[in-house]
User: What shape does this take?
Amino acid sequence: MRLDLRIPVGALFALIGVLLGVYGGATLGQPGTTPTGVPINLVWGLVLLAFGTAMLTLARRARRAARGHANPDAARGPGIT
Assistant: This one.
């Protein structure tokens, strides 16, 4: 069984996204955290979380597809060579 690189990358980005999003939400409205009016930590936390979730979803779909096509000869049926 081979390790899909999307699993650790997705987990890392999701974890960093959660941490950054929680920090951005906790410091929301404090002076000096949003000089432009945009809560950048919260926004980028959500972006990283979405990317990590997408990577994990793609890895799960690839694993499910590989498990379904483990033996392509078995899907053909008997008598076909």
